[in-house]
Amino acid sequence: MSDYELVCPAGTPAALRVATEAGADAVYVGLRDETNARNFPGLNFSVKELQQGIEYAHERGTKVFLAVNTYARAGNNKVWVEAIDNAARLGVDALILADIGLLDYAANKHPDLRLHLSVQASASNPASINFYARKFGVKRVVLPRVLTVSEIKAINAQIDVESEVFAFGGMCPMAEGRCSLSSYLTGQSPNMNGVCSPASHVSYEQRGPILSTKLAGLTINNFEEHENAGYPTLCKGRFCANEKTGYLFEEPTSLNIAKILPELIAAGVTAFKIEGRQRSKAYIGQIVSSFREAVNQIESAGT
Amino acid sequence: MDAMADAKLSIGPLLFNWDDDKRRDFYFRIADEAPVDTVFLGEVICTRRGSGENYLADVIERLERGGKKVIISSLALVMDDKDMKKVENCVSMAPDYMVEANDLSAVQLLGGAPHAIGPFINVYNEATLRFFEKEGAKRISLNHELSSRKIRAIAAVATAELEVQVFGRLPLAISARCYHARVHNLGKTGCQYVCNQDPDGLTVDTLDSDPFLVINGLQTMSYSYCNLVNELEDMAQMGIKHFRLSPHDVDMVLVSQFFRDHLDGKIEADMATEALEDEVPGAEFSNGFYHGEAGMSWIEV
User: Fold this and answer.
1) Would you call A147 and B132 a contact, using CB atoms and an 8 Å cutoff?
2) A154 and B150: CB-CB below 8 Å?
3) Please, what are the domains in chain B?
């Protein structure tokens, strides 16, 4: 068991096995409904698969976290409450929550269940994090992707809970959990439905040599023949403002903190999260192995 | 119609970076002429913008003399010590004024004192509402994403007074990055306060030249103006007490008068919308979120 935890995505039971074999200290999964922020067709676990996944991982010393990180629906929160009760019954190692109503429920109903604060809760300062720790006994906070190393260090100096940061994968330029760009255009959002820029609303239109990628009929980007057409995630599209055209919000690049792992460890980070429950087994195996090696190198250098 | 006549209007916090003189003139007119019950003051978007020391005391005095309740809104995205200082300054006004918390950091500092919960704190359901009521929230602004069905479910159990934004561009997202600085090729710390050039935000077009969003410093807003004048009666019947008008660089006294006249049964909703169209030339209106559709859409009622 290492001092630093590598937390890896498992969108399917097969990916859970791959991530476990590749050296994940913990895998995080979601149930097959709108209770988690990767509510994609063909992805996620049934309750039975979750039970089997937990058995498989625990036999190999790997922890399983369940993400229930959307906001429960007013008027009908049944699936969210059931997800929490199932997590407690099946013995997940931690539940990742964002919604205060659900945190309150879990803390009262299952006081022994370990709670992590999802990045979707948008807790970006010590006072907020300490509030969640005090009121709900949260043990770990997943920090927003946009924080700098010095900001992370300053936060860690003032909180009593563990911190987890995103190590690799998609980059959200907006404060997570406070963005309704997707639902403004498509009616579906990360907070309510567990999706951003959903595939059901994506279309492609060839206009001569230009391929337009669209979301709900609105052009998000244009690609020339020599360019690779990316997925039309709203905030990573090309737009125009002030006579400037380009990636106004975020370049379509991904996040990779491999090079600054030692600095983040020095800043007090406990866990590194790899994003990508929607990714293939091969991708998961490759990324998890490479981060496992990086963390091992730091640990052996430190001893 | 009593629920309509009893409903109250509020002027939300000014989200744009207007200069001090423009702000003072704006609030003096609101104080003297606008038929609103509550006015929210305070910088919600960016710590780098002015803190209002040149006008705030005068504005508060004038608003209170005009019979308006003043609520001080706290910063929405709190990242560093400077941001936290701003939240502390805001909360320090709590003995004299109600504070609207827009981040959990403010709730933590308020320590259970009576307060308001602003729209930047996620209240999506009854359980979250009850938690904040227990923590001392007397007034809660609901998230703009919520449909009427969800608002109804929350309103059915609320003891705090509820508020819904019914006019103005919607606060869709906030970021640690300043997009205003970014489009002007400036860094966030050397931003030259370029957000003050766009009193209603900087329009973002798609590559097909369709206006879609606006940039307001760290904030990204809808290009369309939320307009729920047609839905006021429905919400009043549910028990929503307060309707928020988010300020824009238009005649907000007239805008609030149109909403008030409709609440008082003096004009039909259609007439109010026509009047709003004249007052906010070229504005596209939206009400999609309320009807459970894409937020930018306009659903005929």
Assistant:
1) no
2) no
3) 2-169+224-286 (3.20.20.70)
| Mean per-residue pLDDT, B44-58 | 91
Query: Alpha helix locations (H) across chain B?
Result: 2-6, 20-33, 56-65, 81-91, 104-110, 126-134, 148-157, 179-183, 232-238, 252-263, 269-279
- The answer to whether B83 contacts chain A (CB < 8 Å) is yes
Residue with tokens 């049944």: A78
Interface list for A 99-138 with B (CB within 8 A)? 99-102, 104-105, 122-128, 130-132
Look at residue A253 in the predicted model and tell me its pLDDT. Answer: 80
Is the minimum CB–CB distance between A146 and chain B shorter than 8 Å?
Answer: yes
A176 and chain B in contact, CB less than 8 A: no
Q: Which residues contact A32 (CB under 8 A, 6 or more apart)?
A: A43, A44, A45, A46
Compute how many other C-beta atoms are within 10 angstroms of the C-beta atom of residue A300: 8
Largest CA distance in chain A: 61
Under 8 Å between Cβ of A244 and B183: yes
**In this predicted model, what pLDDT tens digit does every residue of A164-177 receive, in sequence order?**
999 998 888 999 99
Helix (H, G, I), strand (E, B) or coil at A55: helix
Say what the ipTM of the complex is.
0.96
Test B125 with A241 for CB contact under 8 angstroms: no
Cβ of A192 under 8 Å from any chain B Cβ? yes
Q: Report percent pLDDT > 70 for chain B.
A: 100
Give the tens place of pLDDT for each residue, A56-82.
999 999 999 999 999 999 999 999 999
CATH T-level fold of A5-171+253-300: TIM Barrel (3.20.20)
Chain A contact for B142 (CB, 8 A cutoff): no
Residues 262-281 of A with CB under 8 A from B: none
Q: How buried is A243 (Cβ within 10 angstroms: 0-12 exposed, 13-18 middle, 19+ buried)?
A: exposed
